[in-house]
Amino acid sequence: DPVAQLLIATLSQETTIAQAEKALKQLNARMVDYNELRVSSPAEIADPIGKSIPRSVQRAKTVRRLLNAVYQNEHVISLDVLSSKGVREVKSYLESLDGITPYVVASVLLWSIGGHAIPINDPTLEFLKMEKLVGPDAECAEVQSFLERHVSAADARSFCLDLQVYAASKLAQARAANESRSSRASAKAKPSKKKKSVRKTMTGKTRKSTGAKRTATR
After folding, report:
1. For labelling, which of 102, 125, 169, 191 has a CA lying 20 to 30 Å from the CA of 207?
2. Between vectors from CA 13 to CA 11 and to CA 16, what angle results, nearest 5°?
């Protein structure tokens, strides 16, 4: 369903699709339908998804903007109108929605319309930069356009799934390694209580010894 895909893509802009799908299930369990989601406050939307979605309040605001944009166009929360349009028309329609991003446009094109698109979200772009596969200033739209010229329409879906899974795995490994290094550095910087105690005892003994020598000298 294009509306469901619109929401999954919006929620996965800064995280994995699995986390976004989990968050959408939580919203569907809380809300009667997408229209209730549209008129809910950002806090009401963010509450059930806060543990799954980064910057959940900001994502909630974007969800509301997009659903309201669809409602203003169609007077219902439905994107069935896209089925009667060509890929270029669908892309133009989606790009006109308030709050849309290139990643969300490409996601709906690929997964709902069957168009040729390679959606790249923020974590995937971070991975590509980390591996120096794209320039440090590259943006999602630029990378999507490049990949669409080199990955065929027949391979687009499998390529996107593999890339997203691999990117998520490598980012998780990199973050775990960074946390481990930070923990080791912190442990080295702060002496343990035992070391402090030994140091204090040795300092006290040195002072006593020095005092005894001075008394003997006198």
Report:
1. 191
2. 80
3 state DSSP class of 106? helix
Q: Which of 23, 29, 24, 25 is nearest to 50 (CA)?
A: 23
Phi-psi region of 114 (alpha: psi -120 to 50; beta: other; left: phi over 0): left
What is the spatial distance between Cα 107 and Cα 202, in angstroms, rounded to a whole number?
66
The residue among 183 and 103 whose pLDDT is bigger is 103
How crowded is the C-beta side of 52, counted as CA atoms within 13 Å? 21
| Short-list 124, 123, 112, 111, CA closest to 158 | 111
Identity of the residue numbered 211? G
Residue type, 38: R
Alpha carbon distance 62, 123 (integer Å):
18
Within 96-139, where are the H helices? 102-108, 122-130
Cβ count within 10 A of residue 76: 13
Residue 13 near residue 31, CB atoms below 8 Å: no
Question: Mean pLDDT over residues 11-20, rounded?
Answer: 94
Q: What is the pTM of this model?
A: 0.81
Q: Torsions phi, psi of 108, nearest 5?
A: -65, -40
Q: Which residue has the tokens 């010894």?
A: 209
> How far, CA to CA in Å, does 87 sit from each of 70, 105, 115, 144?
18, 11, 6, 16
